[in-house]
Amino acid sequence: MKVVLSQIDTKEALNKLYTACRTCYNAGKPEDMYATVDEIPQENKVKLLSAVIRSGHHSVLEHQTLTFFISGVSRALTHQLVRHRIASYSQQSQRYCEFKDGKFDYVIPNKIQNNPEALQIFSDLMRQDAMAYDKLISLGLPAEDARSVLPQACCSNIVVTMNIRSFMHFCNERLCTCAQLEIRQLANEMAKAAGDMLPFLKPYFVPKCEMLGYCNEPGKRSCHRRPTFEELTGKKSDN
Length: 239
Description:
Order of helices and strands: EHHHEHEHHHEHHHH
Strand content: 5-15%
Number of domains: 3
Radius of gyration: 22 Å
Shape: flat
Number of helices: 11
Mean pLDDT: 95
Structural class: alpha+beta
Number of strands: 4
Strand order of the largest sheet: 1-2-4-3
Largest sheet: 4 strands, antiparallel
Distance between the termini: 32 Å
Helix content: 40-55%
């Protein structure tokens, strides 16, 4: 797995988000506020943005996007990833990208990797899939049909663009221990890259319990990083 975040102008991103925040609470014109935004100390901009985020007014974050170049993840992961709907995706096509000699890279889940018997079963199946794919191609079938025998473990590459509000929600959900390990690892890599580039937003690229102050999962699913809803209130969660 590899994650690369496209470079953005950090100062410009903060200026834009700050102007969006001020526009909501100021009678002045946004173009006038933006024209003088460089005169405002950075700490003041961060303070206002943080206060607005804490208040739940997250729509201001939609004015800045992040673009990630992601490679070496499974198709199982990308099927989960594209469920985050407020985003743009460009994924490697198995219709048009033919695997030479039937050879394809694949992701081995940790629990399979750590179980010798399971790993043997898994590896044997990957070889069979590769042979079946290669045979179908040799029979003249197009890649779009031969791909039907490829597993969800097959590696894929994808470009993802999210606005910061959507990315924050992605982190909140997929950094939770309830998320599958592979996508949790991806979320960690993406959150680190984004946090390094936009340090004033790093506190929000965290599991949802850190934003809520409690765990909203049922007790049996909770990692107990934070108290559960039931532990805090004595009431059962709707989950």
